[in-house]
Design a protein that fits this description.
The structure is a single chain. The chain is mainly alpha-helical. It has one domain. The protein is 64% helix and 0% strand. It contains 15 helices and no strands. The protein is globular, with a radius of gyration of 20 Å.
């Protein structure tokens, strides 16, 4: 089985849209300007809707795309050694360069007495925390979104086992992993986000069983509307109960992030027929560049804002953060591509054009929109 042009374009479109959505998930805030203070009414609700509800579909959808592409040609043609060598260049090396680069920058800034409270104190960090910050051994890295690449690598390493289980025991395998992805108290133990493990495996299922990805395309708009409405209803519950959500809302959010990913996928059937959707499907490696670069930019803007601005003007920061971050990403992407193509190629894993090949990974977002000062050395099982 091969990926036809329509599916290929929709995959590229979804990558760009979902990773752009991740930016909204990671716009920083602290307790003083938390949306759960309800100081700004509809604006705060919109923050919860975008960051805590709607764009949580990113990780499951991108994980499923990765699993699907890995086995799109069938398990018989899956070459494990070739895939592992390829992922060392396209996933592991970019992870190390982007994360260790930020780690070095944070260390220098903190040595100068700045940036305290936005990242863990690296010069006072324990060895386990330092290893997590550098390599995401058992917790989130310093460039928080890159935990997804870490979990993706784990899934790729165990992909033959997952494929074998899906081939022989599909219902049991998916059922067990779904439970891990939905129930907050469960921990699979090998990934930082259980939703990645389930969705990656579900993508394998779609590929091995030749599931028709266009089956519900005629229902694209109703399904997209249903996802949006469900996200809005969930956002209302989160807005009223946050930041310490009850378990039932955490479960509903985890379920929406999984089922909503399917709804948005079918919505891409309508979006790809629009000029904007078609243009976004041709952005190539910009999605990966956005994924790796947006978090340091957001935190840098947050540091500057806290130094000079009034907390009451947080809506201004939110708006500027989005505009400045996307502008900086687009400009830096173009400059790097034209003026430093060698470095650009390494940093993007040599993703020059938007043509998904066998095993080509999708890239995805982090889970929690945490305050910048939050610690990130614990596992979290929420999707």
């Amino acid at each position: 089985m091969t990926v036809d042009q329509n599916i290929s374009s929709r995959i590229n479109l979804m990558r760009m849209l979902l990773i752009a959505g991740i930016v909204f998930v990671h716009i920083p805030y602290n307790r003083e300007v938390s949306p759960f203070q309800h100081d700004h009414g509809l604006f705060d609700w919109l923050r919860v809707f975008l960051g805590e509800s709607l764009f949580r579909v990113g990780v499951p959808c991108l994980s499923a795309i990765s699993g699907y592409l890995l086995f799109q040609r069938g398990i018989e043609r899956f070459e494990y050694s070739r895939v592992i060598r390829s992922k060392g260049r396209t996933v592991l090396l970019p992870f190390l360069l982007w994360n260790l680069g930020l780690l070095a920058l944070v260390f220098v800034v903190q040595k100068m007495g700045a940036g305290i409270g936005y990242f863990p104190r690296l010069n006072h960090a324990t060895l386990p925390l330092l290893m997590d910050q550098a390599l995401a051994i058992d917790g989130f890295p310093v460039n928080l979104p890159l935990y997804f690449l870490r979990d993706l690598l784990i899934c790729i390493l165990i992909a033959p086992v997952l494929a074998l289980l899906v081939r022989r025991l599909p219902a049991i395998t998916l059922g067990v992993l779904f439970a891990f992805a939905v129930f907050p108290e469960l921990d699979a133990g090998i990934v930082l986000k259980n939703s990645i493990l389930f969705s990656f495996t579900f993508g394998i299922f779609l590929a091995l069983y030749r599931v028709d990805l266009k089956r519900f395309d005629d229902w694209a708009l109703p399904l997209g509307a249903l996802v949006t409405l469900s996200a809005a209803l969930l956002a209302q519950g989160l807005y009223l109960t946050g930041p310490d959500y009850p378990d039932v809302l955490l479960m509903l959010r985890n379920m929406l992030s999984i089922f909503g990913a399917g709804g948005l996928w079918f919505l891409s059937a309508a979006l790809i027929r629009t000029p904007v959707g078609l243009s976004l499907s041709r952005t190539g490696s910009l999605s990966f560049w956005t994924f790796c670069a947006h978090y340091p930019l957001l935190i840098g803007l947050w540091m500057v804002w806290n130094r000079f601005a009034d907390p009451d003007l947080y809506p201004v920061f939110y708006t500027l953060a989005v505009l400045v971050t996307f502008a900086a990403i687009i400009v830096s992407h173009r400059l790097a591509r034209h003026w430093a193509p060698g470095i650009y190629g390494v940093l993007t894993g040599h993703r020059v054009r938007a043509k998904p090949g066998p095993g080509s990974p999708a890239f995805g977002p982090p889970e929690l929109s945490l305050p910048a000062s939050a610690t990130r050395n614990k596992r979290s099982t929420n999707a």
